[in-house]
Amino acid sequence: MLSNRVRVIDLETAGDGPHDVCEIGWQDVSLGADGRWGVTEERGALLVNPGRAISADTMAVHHIRDEDVAGAPYWKDIAPTILKPERGVLALAAHRAAFEQRYCRPRLSAGAQWICTWKCALRLWPELPRFSNQMLRYQRKPAGLVHEIGLPAHRAMPDAYVTAHHLRDMLNEASIDQLLAWSIEPGLLPRVPTGPDRGKTWDQLSAPALSELAASRDVDLRFSAKTELERRNGQNEVDREPAQARLL
């Protein structure tokens, strides 16, 4: 039987250096018989021994201590049991999935495809002012999200649970193939995030300002500016044809 679920993953790490994983959380989102996606009861979290001390800065965020993970399994041993569950998955998902993908390597996940809910939120809800996992939670107030299950923030299972509600709503607005396609590309920012034009939509920028941002080192900023340049070029091509017809 083919899988009908996407598994949302969230990781907590030890901080500094290689940021070794110290907790993995998961929450499944499944396609129902009615053709709608829903958040299931399949969720959980496991502590992971990072093989090194957890930094104080990181403990202050997630409150996982060295003594909590001392007897936990190592990442390479526990990761496949979560990333490659029985019956498989259609895809894995995470908010800003590039972070999780650094650790959930193809050999641990059977080469699963990934959905980035941050990138998809930029596409589906561009009118929102901010796109962090928790800001989406309180801006959109997803139906059915049990407040207490989504706490504490910055722990793996509660964060995966919150992300799963965003993913459910996304899958009910767009196809899984569309979400996967958006996730492969850089983030399409709805507004300029920094600099003198901060807060402006791309169509409000002058051509010189847009060209400057299209040369940015930031991949998402560069992609967003180039997308607007391509839109303008395409629009110009369309506008020129009627003008030529009138001249003729």
From TrEMBL:
Gene Ontology molecular function, alphabetical: 3'-5' exonuclease activity; nucleic acid binding
The segment annotated Disordered runs over 228-248
Domain (Exonuclease) ranges = 5-176
Superkingdom: Bacteria
Question: Which InterPro entries does this UniProt record tie to the protein?
Answer: Ribonucl_H, RNaseH-like_sf, RNaseH_sf
Listed GO cellular component terms? cytosol
- One BP term from GO: DNA replication proofreading
The name this protein goes by in its record: DNA polymerase III subunit epsilon
